[in-house]
Amino acid sequence: MTITAVDPADTGMQWRVEQLTCSLGAEVFGVDLGEVSRSEEQFAELSALLLRHKVLFFRDQDITRGEHVALAERFGPLEDHPVAGSDPEHPGLVRIYKDLDSPAEHYENAFHCDATWRVIPPMGSVLRCVESPPVGGDTIWVNMVEAYNKLPAAVREQIAGLRARHSIEASFGANLPIEQRHAMHERFPDAEHPVVRTHPETGEQVLFVNAFTTHFVNYHTPANVRFGADYAPGAGDLLRYLISQAAIPEYQVRWRWTPNSVAIWDNRSTQHYAVQDYWPAVRKMERAGIVGTPTF
Ligand code: SIN
After folding, report:
1. Is 1-296 assigned to CATH 3.60.130.10?
2. Does the pTM of the predicted model rise above 0.85?
3. Residues 130-173: pLDDT tens digits?
4. How far is it, in rounded angstroms, from Cα 165 to Cα 209?
5. Which atom of ligand 1 lies nearest, measured to the CA of 283?
6. Could you state, in order of their start, the residue ranges of all structural domains in the chain?
């Protein structure tokens, strides 16, 4: 059952905020995101709501690409994506366009945090729907703070201090000819992040492994490994268990897209999954990804 509740915060902007699930996500009514892109006061309100709800949703935002970029840039500088191209006139506005000619399989079908293969993964994104399929193509977001908090205490204890590698080579690179894959790896060497990240603004503990995570780098210690046989499959089993937490519905919210609807999410505390059930229908999204801060 979806619980809908009015956010108790008085936004002062006469925005109406409806929480979409018990875990995360709120739809905000009465907002013009074009205006938010020009107003420091409105942006401060929106940022506070984002920290509280982790992903915010808006409908009927007929904003220009310039306004989209300006809104996202209020959070910080934008970054291009090495695989998905950006709008030529708006660097940092990545086009995620799927149509009849797109391969049926693509890279959105896994719960992930955007670009954790970067040493500094993005802080968040502003995603606008340009064209939606008549049915399907929803996106699911997951609260990874809740996923961490609900882990059994013994698991939380075991993963404290663990670190893991995240790879673009093993994900976006896997389908490339070997030379191109190696070049991609040279440009983006695997990044290392803590398995439990501290959110830089809220101080929350976040379970920070996802589809880009390949292995732990400091599991093979006497505390975890009595004999070599404990390492494999022990480390892999633990990693798979942790990655599987994002699929638990109690931690999720699911959003149905319509043209000009917008989602803004905190990439430090959530994962997401774009459901690819709509092919050969067209789905066109534009995403402004915002540079983040080190994970330590
Ligand atoms: C993404 O993975 O950032 C895109 C999500 C979507 O297209 O719904």
Report:
1. yes
2. yes
3. 999 999 999 999 999 999 999 999 999 999 999 999 999 998 89
4. 9
5. 7
6. 1-296
